Amino acid sequence: MINFQYLRAGSTEKALALLAKDKNASFIAGGTNLVDLMKKGVSSPDKLIDINKLPLKDISLEEGHIHIGALASNAAVADHALIREKLPLLSMALNKGASAQLRNMATVGGNLMQRTRCGYFYDITMPCNKRKPGSGCGALEGYNRMHAIFGHSENCIAVHPSDMCVALAALDAVVVIGQPNGERRIALSEFHRLPGKTPQLDNNLKANEIILGVEVPLNTYGRHVQYLKVRDRSSYAFALVSVAAALELDGNRIREVRLALGGVAHKPWRLTATEAFLRGREFDPALIREAANRSVAEARAFKHNKFKITLAAESIVQALSEASQQS
Amino acid sequence: MADNKEKPGTPSPGRRNFLRDSTLITALSLTPGAVLKAASEKADERFAELFEKIPLRLTVNGQAHALSVEPRVTLLDLLREQLKLTGTKKGCDHGQCGACTVHVDGERVNSCLSLAVMNEGKEVTTIEGLAREGELHPMQAAFIKHDGFQCGYCTPGQIMSAIACIREGHARTRDEIREYMSGNICRCGAYPHIVDAIEEVQKTGGKI
């Protein structure tokens, strides 16, 4: 690992001031992704600003939403009584991510900021437009079994690896961002970007900003939620496809529904058209099958990941069915 | 592996100290910018290294340490290379295998992905800190009883993780144990015996 200058920030203002001083500075919280990237030589900041002392660990019930501080660990959120009761989908998604050790270290803000696990991004001897703009995409004609089937571009077909973000996208979460002179809010589904011509940009956080937390609106899905994660082994692996599903049922009628996919795009893939299709209809197997087929109609696969289209459709069917049966 | 003895031809401690001290004085007289520039150009690595080491206080297995480390040193390397606590193993060094699992302030973490300097003021427990007055920790004893290992390389991490798994309340069923132990890979495949050991310790209900 290339050495760097290490600083600790005691307040958000100090953290932002330190960040503004150096173009190649980076915040570090849990470090589970950044330290790995630094060991691999993918990332080499001159300066690391340790933000763990910032007072951003709170998880609290507010007017109409639950606030989760950016520095709350993934384990603390997943196991928090308030989250388990009010946002079980988020708890499920978090517990299906990484390992118990990593969940103790990794933070909510870091989870939002984590980078793709595309092998070509991680291997500095390979071309990668995300790591080195203009160098090409190794995955496009390479081994692309884990890669995107939605929203990709000729410059990048990597996927965002988070489970937490998929659940948060389905739950209409909002990211709270600190700036030198205030705050701003952005819908989580607008936080991450599609690769387009600028795959080096994972998200819309600006260089002088810091994530303060997320706000998740209270909802009426109750226990009718499911986070289904399909992977190469039964635990501790990134998703081939994952589905976050939430239903509000009135008898058999679908009053409200949320659906988002993970492992298929450069960002959590919210299925708003499918939600609109399902809203107000009677829940039955034929309808769910039709919804799943519609959801993948626009999918475009590559040489090694064609299976993901079928897998995504089948996973949507399973997740919605299981969500409807939860009690 | 590590040979602490002086090798023939290496400078004597006196000369080494003189070099270190005099270099440090030179370093301190320069501006940080110049030092960083020297470091980036690798003009004088030794010089830069001395300047960039920062103080770190932490407690390991109940013993307080006042150390000086480079920011890039991981907690794993600090334990193994500086404190000579080699029970904690380096497997993948990328947070994928769990061999480096230790407890920091009572929580299990991958020490390979934790920068040592980020553990200022914290309490670290490693496999060496488990036994009490010559008595094995119940989890250590259970691993032996149930043959929870073959080559043993993953074992310190497995045991640290297993203790945390019970303390967290995530060892109520065999399935739950398997799920919450998935961050510890055993290439010998001792998994069924590891689960046996954890299940037994969990069922005894004692404080671990």
Automatic annotation (TrEMBL), chain A:
One of its GO terms (molecular function) is oxidoreductase activity. The keyword Flavoprotein applies. Gene3D superfamilies: 3.30.465.10, CO dehydrogenase flavoprotein, C-terminal domain (3.30.390.50), Uridine Diphospho-n-acetylenolpyruvylglucosamine Reductase, domain 2 (3.30.43.10). It holds the Pfam family CO_deh_flav_C. InterPro entries: CO_DH_flav_C (IPR005107), CO_DH_flav_C_dom_sf (IPR036683), Diverse_Substr_Oxidored (IPR051312), FAD-bd_PCMH (IPR016166), FAD-bd_PCMH-like_sf (IPR036318), FAD-bd_PCMH_sub1 (IPR016167), FAD-bd_PCMH_sub2 (IPR016169), Mopterin_DH_FAD-bd (IPR002346). Keywords: FAD, Flavoprotein. Residues 1-221 form the FAD-binding PCMH-type domain. PROSITE patterns: FAD_PCMH. The keyword Flavoprotein applies. PANTHER family: OXIDOREDUCTASE (PTHR42659:SF1), XANTHINE DEHYDROGENASE SUBUNIT C-RELATED (PTHR42659). This is FAD-binding molybdopterin dehydrogenase.
